[in-house]
Design goal:
With 130 residues, the chain is mainly beta. It is 3% helix and 49% strand. It has one helix at residues 104-107; strands at residues 3-7, 10-13, 18-25, 32-39, 45-51, 58-60, 68-73, 78-83, 92-100, 119-120, 124-129. Strands 2, 4, 5, 6, 9, 10 and 11 form a seven-stranded mixed β-sheet that branches. Strands 1-3-8-7 form a four-stranded antiparallel β-sheet, with no helix packed on it. The longest helix is centred in the last third of the chain and has 4 residues, at 104-107. The chain starts with a strand and ends with a strand. The relative contact order is 0.32.
């Protein structure tokens, strides 16, 4: 059974930093694409960042470029989202997403769309106060 467990959310003042973690377990595939999405109050869930299962290619939403950094530890099947210079508009529930990658080309391409992911974490709340 595949599970994704997020941690690291919380309350922080504007300008502060937080690091989210997502530990994946239960995958039998050796190559797993991972990403982060978020849902702000009253809004649709949106893409935040994604990292390829191989190599270091990453992609970010325009709203977080230069402030957020996604990374992963393949040995631990864990991804991280370092969030700096947080703004009140970053307040949201953050979701980890993952899927097995079945092609070599796909392994080097970050997945940026919700429908590309098969598994989701339960979400972790990030609140940024002004």
């Amino acid at each position: 059974q595949v599970t994704l467990v997020e941690s690291g959310g919380g309350l922080v003042q504007a300008g502060g930093s937080l690091t989210l973690s997502c530990a994946a377990s239960g995958f039998t595939a050796s190559s797993i694409a991972m990403g982060w999405f978020r849902r702000a109050p009253g809004k649709e869930r949106e893409f935040v960042a994604a990292i390829a299962s191989r190599g270091s290619s990453a992609d970010y939403a325009d709203s977080v470029k230069g402030r957020f950094t996604i990374s992963r530890d393949n040995a631990k099947n864990t991804e991280y989202l370092q969030m700096n210079t947080l703004k009140p508009e970053d307040t949201a529930v953050y979701y980890c997403a993952a899927r097995p990658v079945r092609t070599i080309v796909g392994a080097y391409t970050p997945k940026t769309r919700e429908w590309e992911y098969e598994y989701w974490g339960q979400g972790t709340q990030v609140t940024v106060s002004s």
